[in-house]
Amino acid sequence: MSDNATPPDPGALLDTRRSKTERALLAWDLAMIGLVSVNLLLILIDMLYSIGFVENALQAGLPGLSAWYDRTIHAHFFSIDLVFVGLFVADVLAGWALAVVQQRYLRWYFYPFAHWYDVLGCIPVAGLRLLRVLRVISIIMRLQRLGVIEIRDWWLYRQAMVYYDVIVEEISDRVVIKVLGGVQDEMRSGGQTLSRRVVHDVIAPRRAQLTAAVSSQAENAIAAAYGDNREQIQAYIANVVNRAVDQNPALKNLERVPMLGRFVSEALDLAIQDTVNNVLDEAVAGLTSRDFDALVGNIVDSVIERLLAENVGEATPEIQDAMIEVLELVKDQVAVKRWRGHFE
Question: How far apart, in whole angstroms, are the C-alpha atoms of residue 164 and residue 158?
Fold first, then answer.
């Protein structure tokens, strides 16, 4: 096949692959969309005509059309609507029979419950007639699933989805904030269930990960802090050692030794400073050792064991306060109206 050959139209392939039954059902759906649209248009026109000033304006501006509509349609609107109702009832019964044949539902009588809007829309009552709009929407969605149309490319659909997202986000945000507020109230009133579940179900199973994380963070934090402040730390140690040497009676007596006393005292001072500094350097360098990891692991295990105690809520109110604050931050984040970004 040549590279420049025109690819086949997916819509044409879809049409050729459809069976006669599928094409008949497709024609049926399109016909029902037309009938429902005409019926809804008549309902809307008659509702407007029933408004006093609209009727008076039409009689004043187009008396002939007003008289014809009043005599031909408005006076017999209920009978005309019954014709549409008869067609809609036939559509419901045919769809029900087809659903039974195709075994779409677990029970044969589930169809009217699944298509309640079709059933109620067949009732010729003003309020229920508007449910016929849902019939059009359901048919459009079915055509979307069949690949006949692509409503996501429609401008009206995109605009509707924007406001749908706004409504859903507003409702869901309020529900989530309400739920989180209830959890906070329960914790403030002394409830320990959530605290225990967090410790038992979240912290305890992750001992190894927490130990590794704490060890790594401690190592990085201490090494970085020591590296940035090494000179200040060594200066502080020198001052501490100098004061200790000056206040030590034995070293003071040593300074009185002729010739070597002062020299030995200063040498001891420097030796002590170097020893302490070397100890700190070795300690910081040894943070990556297994011994340090084992030490942190023991500390973390001890903390977790303490949290797992029966009196965790009474013994550690800090956990409750921290969780309440975390929930408050989550509420603040949930309250952010992300839908505003679309309009801005």
Answer: 10
